[in-house]
Prior knowledge:
The complex is a heterodimer of chains A (518) and B (329). With 518 residues, chain A is of the alpha/beta class. Chain A has three domains: 4-241, Rossmann fold; 258-332 and 418-500, P-loop containing nucleotide triphosphate hydrolases (Rossmann fold, 3-Layer(aba) Sandwich); 343-417, no CATH class. Chain A has 17 helices and 20 strands. In chain A, the strands form four sheets. A six-stranded mixed beta sheet of chain A has the order 6-7-8-3-9-10, sandwiched between helices. Chain A has a six-stranded mixed beta sheet with strand order 16-17-18-13-19-20, sandwiched between helices. In chain A, a hairpin with a 2-residue loop joins strand 14 and strand 15. The longest helix of chain A is centred in the middle third of the chain and has 16 residues, at 177-192. Chain A is globular. With 329 residues, chain B is mostly helical. Chain B has a single domain (14-308), classed as ABC transporter involved in vitamin B12 uptake, BtuC. The two termini of chain B are 33 Å apart. The A-B interface holds A 74-76, 79, 85, 87, 90-96, 100, 104-105, 107-116, 118, 143-144, 146-148, 174-176, 179, 269-270, 507-511 and B 183-190, 192-193, 195-197, 199-207, 210, 214, 263-264, 320-321, 323-325, 327-329.
Amino acid sequence: MSDYILEMEHISKTFPGVKALDNVELKVKQGEVHALIGENGAGKSTLIKVLAGVHEADEGGRYLFEGIDADIHRPLDATLKGISIIYQDLSLFPNLSVAENIYIGRDSNKKPWTKINWKSMKELAGKALDELEMDIDLNKRVELLSIAQQQMIEIARALAFDSKLIVMDEPTSSLSSGEVEKLYRVIDKLKERGISVIFISHKLKELFRVSDRFTVLRDGQFVGSYDVEEIDEQQLIKRMVGREVVYENNTQKAAVGEKVFEVKNFSKEGNFKDINLSLYEGEILAVTGLVGSGRTELAQSIFGVNKADEGTLWLNGKDLKINSSEDAVKQGIAYVPEARQTQGLVLEQSIVNNMTLPVIDALRNKLKLIDRKVEKELTEQYIKSLDVRPSMPDLAADKLSGGNQQKVVIGKWLSAQPKLLIIDEPTNGIDIGAKTEIHKLLRRMVKEGIGVIMISSELPEVLSVSDRILVMSRGRIAGELNTLEADQEKVMNLALDTEEPEDKRQPEGAESTVHQEV
Amino acid sequence: MKALLKQKEFSVLAIVIIICVILSFVSPVFLTVGNWMDILEGNTVIGILAIGMTLIIITSDIDVSVAALTTAVAVSIGFMFQYLPDSWFSVVLIFLIAPLIGMLLGAFNGILVSKIQIPAIVVTLGTLNIFSGLVLYFTNGNYINSTQFPQSFMAFSNIEILGIPILIYLFALVAVSTWFILKYTLIGRSVLAIGGNAQSSTRVGINFKKVKMFVFTYMGFLGGVAAIAQTSYTTAVDPNGLMGLELTVIAAVVLGGANIHGGRGSIPGTLLGVLLLAIMQNGMILARIDTFWQNVVTGAIIVIAVSYDEINHRRNQAKLANIDVKEAS
């Protein structure tokens, strides 16, 4: 028998239209802490979901656990075999007690009328907490615990299950540095007991502190596995980003004019701090960073969705007062959100109804009723100029492809004639042809005098489309790069913020949103 | 003791006690044993239905067909009584068949909610109309009165043990068994779990659909039991007698501290909610307040209680967020 507890080889996973995993390998030894790293969308989450039985891999893969075929088809199978997953957003029941939360799932495969033995449940839960040297009241409802304590409950649950492999997805993202240290000690303890841990994190520093081995994924593909001694941070970064270039990097120097938009000393507790940025006429400014770096939160605060605590905005010569997204629209700011299907479109409604939504007030006739004719003309004009296909104004938005949906969202905001457009992950989930079209569209908008700030985590896109790049990390601007002088490694170095000493990390508040990669 | 005071049920209990004290001054009859027996017996049907509804609301669903379902079973009982002999066997048979019919009707709701995944409010609005339409078709809207009932059933409804009517025992039995299910069985905990966090529950291997199926079928089962209680209490079957009762049932559950968003709710709480509505009704009748005002007061109490709960909940959450930030820094 090999000394690997987990062997996954040739694992592929195809979703309709996307190959999320392509021939990936992940091998974990018994009692080691194995870091799984890669950029956003590299396939880490999908791989973990295959491991956990949430997704089934395509035919042809090999998935062995403890040397035999894992035969895992649903989450419960994995749990019963001794694989526990601690998701970033945790899997706890706020309304149940600590003891119940630790014990739950142990008898999920028993008959529904099985009697619960509270005494043995509490004994087992208490034992698991003792092993972690945690002192938490077993009768307390979990909603009354802090995030760090809740995480310990999850680890205790894994112990109570006699787990042999525990996967921790971004376990430190909402912990303070003191709590992180405590977590490391717990992980060391798990190791001593021979339990293997798969640790997913974006913070390279901490990975070098806890991990024995690394597996790097990139764009759904396996890059390699390395012992901690044989690799350093720079080499890891190189392997994370070293992908094939999909588009040409931007080589055109932009003709930059006057300053059009400025953000001064923008802060919001738990989200971002001291953000200063300026946008000049004729340029596309890219804001990039890892998931959780605060880029989307920043955009939403500029747009008035979540008001910033401090700071001012300035657009075309005057200070802005923005208390809500309605104010932002009135001042000429448009925001195209990342989740275009849920936040940008009314999917069941027609293209017309979607496109004219921001200007519906202006389209009313003398009787204060919506002038359907003018509405349709306006829509047809945008359908033509944006090349939306099929060019049928009455078609429901959910019948369109992702790229065309995005065009409708863009058209919707163009109809409002904005002065500033903030576009979040403009080509997320769109096929390559449509991506290029969207990019051209952004360039055209800049030429027409609209200020464009593009938020994107796709580095080739950032390098291809933008003129200037701001990199965010942990809620701050980690650095600014001129696109002509930038490359993926430079951006990644800033995004991972490898230079910053560990103790300066900002604690994140309980409010900070939980991010899940697709 | 401190933990007890913090319990949500405690604030309902406090309100119940305050109202009792006020009412005992308003009317000398209020605190008599006889009046309390009347209150409890008269609210057995609402109570039994509210207990079933508690499970449904814990899973963040709702069932507005309960009154129609109960009436449908009661009408079935009325029809069966025309053919059943006058023997204790008939009473036993009714106790087997009525809950079974209820279960079938409840399971119908359950299938639509869990398998076809139609929102429960839509499903049960539909079945509410189907059940009551069928009831009217079969009865022409006419009473089935006690002359057609077996004497044994009439005797059953008059049973008193230790001076307490049999229906109150039935109510207590339902309450205790359901409490036991929630606290001590796997299915009961699964009900609480999917209400607390549906995503987590599937991650730990709880079968979401089965649990939904269970709560609606169990509601149907209790609807059958409530139909027996109703028939026994009124010694007649009135096809329109329970119309609109589902709202009182839901109100009692919500007053008892269950959260319409799911996850929270308990049997003791629901019992207190039922009791609160019952004594208010009773008190206002004793105080000779117009029925019109009774409804206004009841409605106002529901709105106030639920708003208070929601505000309190949000405040607690905010406090919790604070703790987190403090611990983090």
